[in-house]
Amino acid sequence: MIIQHAEGKLAERLGLDMDQAFSLLPDRARTSNRRLSDLAQAFVDGTEALTGPTAGRPQQRLRGDGKPRQQLRPGSRPRS
Predict the structure, then answer these.
(1) Judging by beta carbons within 10 Å of its beta carbon (0-12, 13-18, 19+), is residue 71 exposed, middle or buried?
(2) What are 19-61's pLDDT values in tens digits?
(3) Cβ neighbours for 30, distance < 8 A, ≥ 6 positions apart
(4) Whole-angstrom Cα distance, residue 55 to residue 51?
(5) Helix 2-14 to helix 18-31 angle, to the nearest 10 degrees?
(6) Measuring CA to CA, which residue among 47, 57, 61 is closest to residue 27?
(7) DSSP β-bridge partners for residue 19
(8) Which uninterrupted H or E stretch holds 25?
(9) How does DSSP classify residue 48?
């Protein structure tokens, strides 16, 4: 019951559909190594803030012209 409550609250607050909210909670629980029900309860109680689906993921930086920067591996050189 608490998981469905958290899903509904996520959908409303973040403007997600229920499928997106449904997949967001387990993903966050897994990445934070927490039980799904504990995370859902904390979100409903207001002690845990959850943001959109891309939060917590590294964002790709763009160059000045709006194109993605080249990803370099350690020890490699950028192409000219």
Answers:
(1) exposed
(2) 888 888 888 899 989 999 999 999 999 888 877 654 434 444 4
(3) none
(4) 6
(5) 110
(6) 57
(7) none
(8) helix 18-31
(9) S
CB proximity list for 13: less than 8 A, separation 6 or greater:
none
**31: its two tokens:** 């990445």
- Sketch the domain layout of the chain as residue ranges: 2-45
Q: 């370099």: which residue's tokens? A: 72
Residue bearing tokens 């845990």: 48
Q: What is the rounded distance in angstroms from the CA atom of residue 28 to the CA atom of residue 26?
A: 5
pLDDT of residue 73: 60
Which residues pair with residue 70 across a beta bridge? none
Q: What is the DSSP string of 54-80?
A: TTTSPPPPB-TTSPBPPP--TT-----
